[in-house]
Amino acid sequence: MKFEKGLLSQLFIAISLVGLVVYGLLSCTPEPALIPADDFIEADIVYYRDLIVFVEEDTDQRDILVCDLGREKKQEVYTGEFWGCFSRDGSWHKLRKTGKYRLLTSRPSIPEGPPGVEVSIRGCEYIIDYTDSEDNFVLESDCISIMYKESDTEDLRIQYGLADAKLKIGDEEIEGRILCAFTRWVNYEPITAEYRNRYKDFLRFMLFNDDVFVLARENGADMMEFASKNDLEDSPKAVNAYLSIGGYRKSFNTFKLITTDRSYDLALFRVPFGWEIEFDKENSLIVAGEDYYLDNKILTGRAFIEITGALNSRGDDHELVGICEFIK
Q1: What is the CA radius of gyration of the chain?
Q2: pLDDT in tens, 245-255
């Protein structure tokens, strides 16, 4: 009996020691360094872009934050570009840190901002700490779920993610969600090189609610000609859409888009402000613009438009919120 108790005691100690060793090994395992995780070996010429859009939870007047982090590598030259705008209490303004800068790291795959815009990764979560004379905020996301991979080749990766998030401004904490659009494009360097005919009436809609994600993107530019002219192996599709509704998922290589309203601005063109989208006979979307920020108000421009949407999918209706990116 004593022998059995001694054997059991030794067995318990051995199992405990094995458990401690395994725990130690696991605790030393590094967390994923990139969002999304990317094991791509850096090319000599490559461009990365993280477009991050925070949308406040359902309210009469949503705060919306846009942070666009571009990075490129050309041989041993590393360049970054930040662009941002913020809708606070119904009033849009451009973030002051917008502009080009030299990257501090030789790994442009990792998001990096200019001085005053600290970007860090914790597991699969984003943290953006922004400071200037006008704005001071911290954006923290939960773990980002990849919702859709538009392209996943060695030369072109485009994918979209969604996560709950908090925007901290002083003592105030705003609940919401972030939309994340990630791009990796080999042999493309838009920050320091001039690429004409990249966009023509470009529209990208990203909308969501608790269990729905909708992407619809249209570009009037001839992307096959653009890729051929600039010696690119791959390029984004001209038209692309994707629906995720609970367990139902469907992608579209074409859809019917009608602009139903336009907003007059100081620009020499009008910003689109209402749309009807017919994906197929079972899925359609009505989108209305709520407010927007427009940059470069002369002959061309880029706008981010707060939108709401009414999606009808297979007879069921869904109310959505989100953002539209428009480039003239």
Answers
A1: 23
A2: 999 999 999 99
